[in-house]
Amino acid sequence: MPTDTERTRVEPSGKRVRVYLRGHPVADSIHPLLVWENPHYPTYYFPLADVAQDSLSPDGDSTHSSGRGDAQVCTVHAGPARAPGAARLYGSASDEQLRDHVRFEWDAMGAWFEEDEEVFVHARDPYTRIDVLASSRHLRVEVDGSVVAESTHARLLFETGLPTRYYLPKPDIRMDLLEPTDTVTRCPYKGTAEYWSIRVGDQLRTDRAWSYRSPLPESQKVAGLVSFHGVDVYVDGVLQDQRHHRPGP
Length: 249
Known about the structure:
Strands 1-4-5-9-8-7-6 form a seven-stranded antiparallel beta sheet, with no helix packed on it. Strands 3-2-10-11 form a four-stranded antiparallel beta sheet, with no helix packed on it. It has two domains: 9-119, Domain of unknown function (DUF427) (Metal Binding Protein, Guanine Nucleotide Exchange Factor, Chain A), CATH 2.170.150.40; 130-239, Metal Binding Protein, Guanine Nucleotide Exchange Factor, Chain A, CATH 2.170.150. The protein has no helices and 22 strands. A hairpin with a 2-residue loop joins β2 and β3. By secondary structure, it is mainly beta.
């Protein structure tokens, strides 16, 4: 049995959560569990009774975790679609809460819904909060000493576990130095971001700026504004630490 320090954090979720594979339903539960397999965000575990009948077939492999115990690796079947190795069945988990629960690989599934809203990248952490505040503080963004943006009309985005992000209006940015790229990322709290590279002189810094054209409701205040990473950001003349604590803009 795992010790208290090894035990995985597990909490019930009050949301209805559904999983689809190529448009076919795989799981539908009003009793999913939130399981923190890593410290930054949880994933969903579904009661086996809420997983579509005959949608799982053991692959013959197993995995072991000190906090969760042994699990069978399973292929997921939904209509003609198959996702080999995309599920873990905890039939005899060392943590009683997880026994007879199924965990799906997020990226192997086609779509995830919390209630009727589609969720991207990973499950939302109920303890993650986003605040967006208007600020008249003086913001300056530099690349190799060249000023790329300067503003006293920024919006500051505070997100649990991440450094403050500074979003600036485009009229305060040297948009002539920004070149759009094909990069797109998704955040379960902010939505879909588009990117720009920054060209200063002969140097091109790839994907150093991003913007949410149509962010999710909790982040609406940064719609159309631009933020930066991998550059020098000064607030009231003081250089800020913009290192990531975890992946994501």
